[in-house]
Amino acid sequence: MGSEPSGPPTEGDDRPVNDVHSSSASPAAVRDPRVLVIFGATGDLARRNLFPGLFRLFRAGLLPDDLRIIGSGRRARGDVQDFRDRLGEGVREFAGEVYDAGRWAEFAARVDYVAATTEDGSELAEALRRARREAGERARPLLYLSVPPSIAEEMVRMIGRTGMADGASLIMEKPFGTDLASARALDATIAAYVPEERVFRIDHFLGLEAVRTLLALRFGNGIFESFWNREHVASVVIDVPEALGLEGRAAFMESTGTFRDMVSTHLCQMLGVAAIEPPARLDADGLRAQRLSLFRALRPLDPAETVFGQFDGYRQEEGVADDSTVETFVALRAWVDNWRWRGVPFLLRTGKALGSSERLLTVRFRAAPLALFDGGRGAPRADERGGDRPDALSLELSDRPLLRLRLGAKRPGAALDVAPGDLTFRPDEAFPDDEPLEAYEKLLLDALRGDQTLFTGAAEIERLWEVCQPVLDAPPEPLPYARGSWGPRAALDLAAPDGWAVPDA
Questions:
Q1: CA–CA distance, 76 with 503 (Å, rounded to integer)
Q2: Residues at the annotated binding site for NADP(+)?
Q3: How do residues 185-242 score in pLDDT, each as one tens digit?
Q4: Measured distance CA(197)–CA(286) in Å, rounded
Q5: Has residue 499 been placed in a domain?
Q6: Read out DSSP for 204-221?
Q7: Residue 463 domain flag
Q8: Bind-site residues
Q9: What predicted TM-score, i.e. pTM, was given to this entire model?
Q10: How many domains does the chain have?
């Protein structure tokens, strides 16, 4: 490491990008050639995440040397260079730390654009066949469907009808349907063209570095696994607030709502990671089997233990109906009826226009059986919002997570006063030479490698819709809440007595 040039890489500098993924711990580069087709390539997800992630992987030498990428959208574009330039603007904005014009031009030369719709994909199908012929016999196509759920099933039928699905793997973006019936219909359509072992249902929360940090914490350290159960855990809090409002996504919010967008996907998946039993092996089969078992023990959600909210001014947003009852906030209590977790509440909360964007998974432990220090001025106790409660383990749900264990600790001095104190661990500080992959980078790389470990299966998705169906059938009336607040009062009461874990909540 010491012999490498110092300072950031400059334009045209081909040395490894050490501040991206050049450490020896990085995943092995993909060697099998692929043709990657991205449906929805002109959309926001492609601009913010997919192409910046692919470019980072390219700079780190983790993509196949002969990978071909075909972007597709509904509208024809006369000049593919215009499409590449627009992608380059997104990469400069969202992956600026690795961008240089020379390397981008080299990467962009791999990228083509062909329009396709659910009715007509013939031109795209021909472009894919041509790309496969040029890449050789080992070129296996990977089809990424970043499309609205309303057209996902029709798009799958189109790629099957045109032959694009032959021998291909398929990445599906969430939400996977809008309820149990639509999820089952979508899964049946997918199964008609692509076998389950080649389907990658992507939930980017499962690609977060925090998820693998939690797996390592639980299953790599006997001390934690020994008290990870109802005898020692008082509650588990999964808190994913967003300070942003709609940010131009009114159409998506109006058609989907926060419950379908976040609870049936991200939050339930985080619950699954936190609560699963130890697998026999940390691979796709082992983790999927344990997640499915856990979800089968997850009690169907109760509308009486669910709070919906809508932030003040939502109905005045452009693209929102004047009488909209769409929820922009959800808080609920969930229960897992198995031996390990029976009686332990899982508190889930998410919403738009809230007081913070800090995402935390917090495990709160039961109090000591005898309060020996409850009379001191620094005695450990829950404050009015629960944030300073001792005996809690929290993990930031991010790609650079902070792990914090909050304990009751003695204050220095003559008196035996006890107050909350923290033990903290940051993987990026403990291992400064190793850079994490961002969530979409990790999942794109795993899909290219055929590794389904961090992807969900059809049975898991359908079970989660079964769990969510009671709330979909009888949704609570959305309660108003102020922008920058923490949602309706009823949601704060739902988490009593300890409150939510995010600061100021």
A1: 48
A2: 40-47, 74, 174
A3: 999 999 999 999 999 999 999 999 999 999 999 999 888 888 999 999 999 999 999 9
A4: 14
A5: no
A6: GGGGSHHHHHHHHHHHS-
A7: yes
A8: 40-47, 74, 174, 204, 242, 261, 352
A9: 0.87
A10: 2
